[in-house]
Give the backbone structure.
Amino acid sequence: MQGKQASAYDLCNSIFPADGKARGLLWQLANEAAESEREVKEGFGLHKTHQKITLTVDVELWSVVKAQAKDRKMPAGRYAANLLKKAVMG
């Protein structure tokens, strides 16, 4: 799956599509690994510098953001993040 993104759930399903028990064990392992990584990062002060969020915006507003991002030759998500940062930081 090089160059593609998928959720851990999707990956577990693609690895064990017909074996629910194995898929469940892999899912449990993935969750435990993620929790361990979080605990280690917190323990050593290695906090994230970025946070991925999901926002619900009006369709018309998103169309304007996408058009302005295209004019600036940048991804709409990054442009929206820049707008949010400017609005909050001043």
Remarks:
- DSSP finds four helices and no strands in the chain.
- The radius of gyration is 19 Å.
